[in-house]
Amino acid sequence: MRELLYDRQAAFEYAKKWAFGRNPEYYDFSRIGGDCTNFASQCIFAGAKVMNFTPVLGWFYRSANDRTASWTGVEYLYNFLTGNADGEGPYAEEVPLDRLEVGDIVQLGRATGDFYHSPVVVGVSGGRILVAAHSYDAFGKPLSSYSFEKARGIHILGVRGQ
Fold first, then answer.
1. Minimal CA–CA distance to 58: which of 45, 103, 19?
2. Do the beta carbons of residue 82 and residue 76 sit within 8 Å?
3. pLDDT band at 9 (very low <50, low <70, confident <90, very high)
4. What is the pLDDT averaged over residues 28-44?
5. Rounded CA gap, 105 and 153, in Å?
6. What are phi and psi of 133, to 5 degrees?
7. Rounded to two decimals, what is the model's pTM?
8. How far is CA 161 from the centre of its chain?
9. Which of 9, 109, 118, 154 could form a disulfide with 150 if both were Cys (CB 3.0 to 4.6 A apart)?
10. pLDDT attached to residue 113
11. Is 138 in contact with 78 (CB distance < 8 Å)?
12. Which residues, in sequence order, are CB contacts of 31 under 8 Å at separation 6+?
């Protein structure tokens, strides 16, 4: 398996292009639980260009009915990215928010530790994090403008592929 670079600029460009629209290649989950993590996965895939087709525990999307929970579920995406120790696709680590870069993910949650939203980082400047998201469509929105009790940063370290 080869080590590949995560193309942060490609993730950014994808987020910019589709933040206020829907790519017809992907189902829009907005009306059935939210589209934020689906959009985050699309952005990550734009930068990674590699999916992990491991049944159940991988990270892939072929159609609305042929995908892993990690493609669309907040907690499942976190588990895949931070737990992908040696499999194909992107891998990441949880980091403090001040270590995030463009193309990384922020997950917002309640004090109980229940995380419910996965915006994509599209800008970092002077300690200010700007994000893009679906469900409540946004691009370049300050993270500080969201209401949340907890936040965790997911920093994409790299990608593995054949």
1. 45
2. no
3. very high
4. 96
5. 6
6. -160, 160
7. 0.97
8. 19
9. 109
10. 92
11. no
12. none
Residue type, 40: A
In 3D space, the residue among 6, 14, 15, 3 whose CA is nearest the CA of residue 131 turns out to be 15
Q: How confident is the model at residue 55 (pLDDT cuts 50, 70, 90)?
A: very high
Q: What is the pLDDT of residues 65-114, one digit of tens each?
A: 999 999 999 999 999 999 999 999 999 999 999 999 999 999 999 999 99
Give the gyration radius of the chain's Cα atoms: 14
| CA–CA distances in Å: residue 99 to residues 78, 96, 115, 123, 139 | 17, 6, 19, 12, 20
What CATH number is associated with residue 154? Answer: 3.90.1720
> Phi and psi at residue 48, in whole multiples of 5°?
-95, -40
Residue 144 has pLDDT above 90, yes or no: yes
Q: Identify the CA nearest to 81 among candidates 150, 134, 160.
A: 160
Helix 36-48 with 74-83: angle, nearest 10 deg: 30
Q: Which domain holds residue 67?
A: 2-161
Please tell me the number of Cα atoms within 13 Å of 49 on its side-chain side.
Answer: 11
Statement: residue 126 has pLDDT above 90: no
Count up the domains in the chain and report the number: 1
